[in-house]
Design goal:
The complex is a heterodimer of chains A (about 130) and B (about 90). Chain A has about 130 residues and is an all-alpha fold. Chain A is built from six helices and no strands. Chain A starts with a helix and ends with a helix. By secondary structure, chain B is mainly α. Chain B has one domain. Chain B is built from three helices and no strands. In chain B, helix 1 packs antiparallel against helix 2 and helix 2 runs antiparallel to helix 3. Chain B is elongated. Chain B starts with a helix and ends with a helix. The interface between A and B is large, with 39 and 41 residues.
Chain lengths: ~130, ~90
């Protein structure tokens, strides 16, 4: 019976996917906390785009997305999150770059945080479902 | 593709029933409407549309990870079964 189950698994599941899935990084509470913080920060900062602290908020969230990207790079078998973390960091860096060029349109700022919040929400759910 | 066709495609996505794609479609619709009303510069709109592409990349990466998580659950279950069944 045991042999039958193993043969069944090998036949039904493609080799590379099987290996990747079996070797995947398990749930990491720090990774989950960081992406949750980014999501919550983006939700909060979205409401402060017309306030004096908007520039500082952009710097703060870009620091966190950089921290998240760097942290995920150190985890083995974590390529999917590493790619997503890089994309998320690019979104946040674009906002900081805009503040470096001069005054930023509050609507642009709000939509930027919307992109960060939505992306972080998608990532949070999947990262939270990793095997424990 | 004309602007009307783009708006139609966005409306289809917004009504697709998938909350992630519906959210993305609503965001794009909001951006293009704001740009048409002169509330967003062309440069800002271009950056925001690049962000949409990045969001789609993130969704793609997370879909692959979700698939692997499902596989991992199946493998773990099969191994547990194999361990207890003679």
């Amino acid at each position: 019976m045991r042999r039958l189950l193993i043969i069944l698994a090998v036949i039904l599941l493609p080799g590379c996917a099987l290996y990747d899935a079996y070797m995947m990084t398990g749930f990491d509470p720090n990774e989950y906390l960081l992406i949750t913080q980014i999501r919550v920060d983006a939700k909060q900062y979205k409401t402060q785009c017309a306030m004096p602290m908007a520039t500082n908020n952009a710097v703060t969230i870009s620091y966190k997305t950089t921290l998240f990207e760097t942290y995920s790079q150190g985890l083995p078998n974590n390529a999917d999150v590493q790619r997503a973390a890089k994309s998320l960091n690019e979104i946040a860096q674009g906002l900081v770059d805009s503040y470096g060029k001069g005054p930023v349109n509050p609507l642009f700022c709000k939509l930027k945080y919307g992109s960060i919040e939505n992306s972080a929400a998608v990532m949070q759910v999947v990262i939270g479902n990793r095997p424990r | 593709m004309t602007l009307d066709q783009i708006n139609q495609e966005l409306a289809n996505l917004a009504n697709s029933g998938d909350p992630v794609f519906a959210n993305a479609a609503n965001q794009v619709a909001q951006m293009t409407a704001a740009a048409q009303a002169g509330q967003l510069s062309t440069e800002d709109l271009a950056e925001l549309l690049k962000d949409m592409q990045r969001q789609l990349d993130i969704i793609d990466d997370m879909s692959q990870l979700k698939f692997k998580e499902t596989l991992n659950t199946i493998i773990t279950g099969l191994l547990s079964l194999a361990a207890v069944v003679p």
